[in-house]
Amino acid sequence: MQNVIDTLRSQSASHVEKLKEWLRIPSVSTDSNQKGEVRRAGEFVRDELADAGFEVRIDETPGHPVVLAKWHGAEGAPTLLVYGHYDVQPPEPLELWRHGAFEPTIEGDDLIARGSTDDKGQALALVLGIGGVLRETGSLPINVTFLIEGEEEIGSPNLAPYIDAHLDELKADIALISDCTQFGPRMPAITVGLKGLVYLQVDLVGPNRDLHSGSFGGAVENPANALATMLSKLIDSDGRVLIPGFYDKVRDLTDAERVEISKLPFSEADFAAELEVPMVHGEQGYNTLERKWARPTLDINGLLSGWTGEGAKTVLPSKAMAKFSMRLVADQHPDEIAELAKKFLAEICPPTCKMTISIDHGAEPVLVDATNPWLAVAARAIEKGFEKTPVMIREGGSIPVVSVLKKALGIDTILLGLGLPDDNAHSPNEKFHLPDYQRGIETAAWLLAEMAEG
Ligand code: BES
Ligand code: ZN
């Protein structure tokens, strides 16, 4: 294996070029105008896997296609299912980028571009590390399947049916996903918890047209006022969600879990300083890491109503809209929480407005069994690839496929984050730290050898 690692190291410049090429494809899955570009990003990774020696195909779905690649020549050896996503978040606001979002640029040790950390850089590290072993040795010590989709950022709406329809082909002992972060620089981690998600849009309609706020204000309901009042009833100023029943199924942190979290090197003051906020904020009785990892939350993600252009316009708007989402923890269920939220919104909506609620996407929360023996195997590979012992962490983000794999295939996932907490995922100037790209490539190669040993 050391020979392969040496080769992978000697190829690091070409690995960076490959990633840049992938990042130039604007595969924004929410944008229907970019459908062709999303597919092209899928074809890029298909070609890369084919070139390494995998049997590959592109499978159509009602949305963006799935890339499936297999090398199943290690009879009797375990099977690893590697997941990644080739779609990215929209790049807006464009004016805040230091370079074009799809013009990958190196600054120091970082590669800046939309998708660099989420998830093209992390996914390509696994493709190149595992693909490199196949390319250099002509075989793999274990069986590997790659499942790379183009709809993660829109909640993977077509992936569960796809997996259900391909259960035999996707059968595996364990899954591997690199689509999250390390605990910090030079602090690799295995993530054992992810949050779930429910995303809602509320539209309120009042009068049939915008009105003069002097002539009509106070005499007709203002949907913007009504929506603001409603939203203020969803969460209190300490971050406690006020929807009845919201906390009923929340699994509390155990004392032992809280002790483990408290052992991690984390400074609330540094956290606040880096974000330039005067102080941290959140649910009383919990510290920042506990809030981020193990407590459910509610955030307004967007608000729209009335006049938001230059200067003042004295208008009573006819409509108001809010998008908000709730991040869930075990054992909350997105469908149940969505129902509770809808019921509560109906109760607090004034009779003076018409309301419609639409539910966008959801994901189930994840808690990986930390005693799963494959996690210890992965920890050995990380020690080799990063020359550091990984810590166990949770994350606040969501990856819908993880709970789907558990339910459909009965397997846990090794969540091996290669990113860093300040990578600006979903934000302007998204970056990926190139030394971690190389360490990720090497860790993926080591994982094959470690898994073969068991
Ligand atoms: N890579 C993220 C998930 C993530 C982010 C994990 C941060 C851990 C830390 C992923 O691509 C993502 O953004 N997922 C969405 C899922 C949603 C659209 C269902 C998310 O979390 O908002
Ligand atoms: Zn991602």
Descriptive account of the structure:
The protein is an alpha+beta fold and 454 residues long. It folds into two domains: 2-194 and 365-453, Zn peptidases (Aminopeptidase, 3-Layer(aba) Sandwich); 196-250 and 296-362, Alpha-Beta Plaits. Helices cover 37% and strands 21% of the residues. It is built from 15 helices and 18 strands. It has helices at 2-10, 12-23, 35-52, 116-137, 159-165, 167-170, 213-216, 223-232, 255-262, 268-275, 288-294, 334-348, 373-386, 401-409, 434-453; strands spanning 55-59, 66-71, 79-85, 105-107, 110-112, 143-149, 174-177, 189-194, 196-205, 211-212, 297-305, 315-316, 319-328, 354-363, 366-367, 391-394, 413-416, 431-433. Strands 1, 2, 3, 6, 7, 8, 15, 16 and 17 form a nine-stranded mixed sheet that branches. β1 (55-59) and β2 form a beta hairpin. α1 (2-10) runs antiparallel to α15 (434-453), α2 packs across α4 (116-137) and α4 (116-137) packs across α15 (434-453). The radius of gyration is 23 Å and the shape is globular. Ligand BES binds next to α4 and β14. Zinc ion binds at residues 85, 118-119, 152, 179.
